[in-house]
Q: What sequence folds into this?
């Protein structure tokens, strides 16, 4: 009895897929290095701290910057490494005229999260400009004017041309 090739190909493909899935399952079980399935990645933050942060975001979006700062301070007391909250706190400080604190917070963000680096550099530069730290502002804008991000490159060039 001969088996046709048109029947044999799907069987071989199914066997290969089953072996691959079995190997992936075995590897995940035997190499528990936490990269794919860590408890931290699967668990949500506690509800009360999430509500502080979410309320702060809502307050910021509605222009209630002082209220947002208070909520962020409560949130950051429990989660000091939450970079999103630190960045938002820096924005609120910039909006309320506390540029020196904004500069400190943006420095912290620049150091701790490469994903926020350009944003934090931009806002740090603006805070420096508002506090007459023109050399610091120029360094921030020079850095941004030579970066690959066209949005910040163009904005920084405008600041350099008009104000510095």
A:
């Amino acid at each position: 009895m001969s088996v046709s090739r048109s029947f044999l190909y799907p069987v071989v493909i199914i066997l290969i897929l089953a072996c691959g899935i079995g190997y992936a399952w075995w590897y995940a079980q035997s190499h528990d290095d936490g990269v794919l399935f860590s408890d931290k990645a699967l668990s949500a933050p506690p509800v009360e701290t999430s509500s502080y942060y979410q309320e702060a975001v809502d307050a910021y979006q509605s222009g209630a910057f002082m209220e947002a700062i208070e909520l962020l301070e409560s949130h950051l007391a429990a989660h000091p490494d939450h970079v999103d909250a630190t960045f938002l706190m820096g924005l609120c400080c910039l909006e309320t005229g506390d540029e020196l604190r904004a500069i400190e917070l943006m420095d912290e963000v620049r150091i701790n999260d490469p994903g926020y680096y350009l944003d934090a550099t931009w806002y740090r530069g603006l805070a420096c400009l508002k506090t007459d730290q023109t050399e610091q502002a120029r360094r921030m804008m020079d850095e941004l004017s030579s970066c690959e991000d066209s949005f910040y490159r163009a904005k920084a060039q405008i600041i350099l041309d008009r104000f510095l």
Notes: Confidence is low (pLDDT under 50) at residues 24-48. The CA atoms of residues 16 and 22 lie 10 Å apart. Residues 46-163 form a domain with the Serine Threonine Protein Phosphatase 5, Tetratricopeptide repeat fold (CATH 1.25.40.10). The chain has one domain: 46-163.
